[in-house]
TrEMBL record:
Keywords: ANK repeat, Repeat. ANK repeats lie at residues 15-47, 49-81, 82-114, 115-147. InterPro entries: Ankyrin_rpt (IPR002110), Ankyrin_rpt-contain_sf (IPR036770). PROSITE patterns: ANK_REP_REGION, ANK_REPEAT. This is Uncharacterized protein. It comes from the Eukaryota.
Length: 161
């Protein structure tokens, strides 16, 4: 009804969350599909962290919105303000299905954020062993210096878990 009465679907809340962003965060694929059909260039909307709808869908673990966004040509390697890609966020949150899907769509497994952290580093730090194996299968570069620090902290019990 709102869309039929020309509601502004690009209007964001005070921290930059659009209706599309919110639908992706909550995994409402049908709403995402409707909004994507109504608005072009929705990929330019970001929250205060620089997260796009694809970032939040990947971080929240909702595969259906991720698939819809990529079908509508959202940039798979778009970075937030910290240089994090959707793949890195999915690795951080432990969403194996999304990680595999993004890698199948040719996401760069070796891209690093502004602090030099790769998806492999983040998955290792968070203890997501299955994702570590998947990234290595997709030829992620195991920078041994970073990985040694990460695993040493894990063995010594100094992680944030």
């Amino acid at each position: 009804m709102l869309l039929d009465n020309n509601a502004d679907i690009t209007q964001c809340d005070p921290i930059g969350r659009s209706p599309l962003y919110t639908a992706c965060a909550w995994g409402h694929a049908e709403v995402v599909d409707i909004l994507l059909k109504r608005k072009r260039n929705a990929d330019v909307l970001h929250d205060v962290k620089g997260y796009s709808a694809l970032h939040i869908a990947c971080y929240s673990g909702h595969i259906a919105p991720v698939m819809l966004l990529l079908k509508h040509d959202f940039p798979i390697s778009q970075e937030d303000k910290s240089g994090q890609t959707p793949l890195l966020l999915a690795c951080k949150a432990g969403h194996t299905d999304i990680v595999k899907f993004l890698l199948d769509k040719i996401a760069d497994a070796n891209k690093r954020d502004n602090n030099g952290r790769s998806a492999l580093y983040v998955a290792s730090r968070e203890g997501h062993l299955e994702i570590v194996h998947i990234l290595l299968e997709y030829m992620a570069d195991p920078d041994i210096r970073i990985m040694m620090v990460c695993f040493r902290r894990k063995w010594l019990g100094r992680t944030t878990h």
